[in-house]
Amino acid sequence: MPIEHEKLWDYDAVAIGQTGTETRVAVTPDNIRDYALATQHHHARYVDPDNYPKYPPGVVAMPTMVLAYAPLLRYDIAVNNGFVALEESETARRQTPFAKCDIRWYEPVVAGDLITGTRCVFDKYERRGSKFVTFRVEAFNQHGVKVSAYDYTCIFEYARGRKAVSPPPSEMESTVVTPGQPEAEAAHILTFETTSVGDTLPSLQVTESQETINRFNDLRLAGKPSASNIHTDEEFARQNIFGGAANAGPATMSYADQMLELSFPLRAFYDGGRLVMRAIEPFRAGHVVTLQGEITAKQVTGDQRQVASTVRGTNQRGALVCLCDATLNLPA
Predict the structure, then answer these.
(1) Is the terminal CB of the chain with fewer CB neighbours within 10 Å at N or C?
(2) Alpha-carbon distances of 253 from 27, 77, 145, 228, 324, rounded to whole Å
(3) CA–CA separation, 112 vs 313, rounded Å?
């Protein structure tokens, strides 16, 4: 039983409307580069200062970097409401892992911006015996303009017990297929007029390793680092619902971002774009995931030209790892 001094923030203690403290993060060329490298993205617009002038309006952050400059910080919401987060418990410690994330973008985020992040409990619900909590995080720049928001859903209780540990991968590729030079990529960038429903998008293959998982885990722009969790501690991870260590859901979401960047300009994200990802199976060290996409719809709404696509991430054994829906606004 939990010791008396621990007031655990379990599912029953979570209440809609509970808030955390505000965070403020200065976005810089260095942390834009560090985030890109931590997510295995090597495009010159993020990592090569000599190329920064080629990409107006300045050094623009990867869209999914909102998960770093305005992080969720579950433990902070717990503490701010007088509780101990399950991840921080001394006697009943367990994880509340990623299930789904829904990001919306409104304005570009560039080096020089100062981002204020706010966070709260947005919803809680039960589905097929499992219990979920959804958090809402909003990001505002130094002018008070909302630049992005996301709803992040965690599994607080899992009805079916642990997921089985995937067996060690057999013969597979050990390299990451990443975007090529910007000049080569430019030929693939789509406009509204050049897209058709049913078109397939260039795919991206990503190899995960414990080193890359650790690098992503260690990147912290706000809040304290987590040295031991289901991403970095195999022994602890085996006690949790996935039955073994796996990467972070936001890391997989960054890979979907990269795959979409092969076809769409950053403006398509930041001009009212949206990306929803559902985690299906753990993405473990040693696994190779191929992200493949298809255009599913296009429409003109006012002055917006919207293109919808689905992205499926499948591992080397053919198992579905993630499923994404993206809605992006394209130039004519």
Answers:
(1) N
(2) 20, 23, 24, 21, 9
(3) 34
Phi-psi domain of 73 (left: phi exceeds 0; alpha: psi -120 through 50; beta: other): left
Side chain identity at residue 81, one-letter code = N
Buried b (16+ CB within 10 A) or exposed e, 199-220: bebeebbbbbbeebbebbbebe
Number of other CB atoms surrounding residue 94 within 10 Å:
16
- Based on DSSP, count helices (H) and strands (E) in the chain, helices before strands: 9, 12
Instruction: List, for residues 252-278, the tens digit of each pLDDT value.
Output: 999 999 999 999 999 999 999 999 999
Rg of the chain over all Cα atoms, to the nearest angstrom:
20
Residue type, 298: K
Distance (Å, whole) CA 253 – CA 255: 5
Instruction: Just give the CATH number of 8-329.
Output: 3.10.129.10
- Global pTM? 0.87
Structure tokens at 274: 């949206």
Question: Who contacts 235 (Cβ-Cβ below 8 Å, separation ≥6)?
Answer: none
